[in-house]
Target: DUF4277 domain-containing protein
Amino acid sequence: MNSWFWDKGRCHLSLGARLKTLLINILCDRQLLNHVQRFFEEQDVERLFGKGVKAEDLNEYSICRALDALHLAISWKVYSILSVIIRMLNKAEKLFFHT
Model:
């Protein structure tokens, strides 16, 4: 999905990383988009997203561009990718927790 709508000139974070930002926020703190950056100022952002990433990179503008890209994506492709990932995670969970 990263290669579909990633404008490296406007944001050095991939689409996947920006959507990951949104999911972490929803699951952990549920802040409004304009407060997401504040949430990540208290987190180890480099560990979550990679070397060189700062909390300032995880602002509402980058997340909104990711949501716009997700909206423009072909829905069945997004669904297919997410389905495969979830299936792989379920298999990994069974492998690690049932042995």
User: Anything to note?
Assistant: The mean pLDDT is 78. Residues 15-74 form one domain.
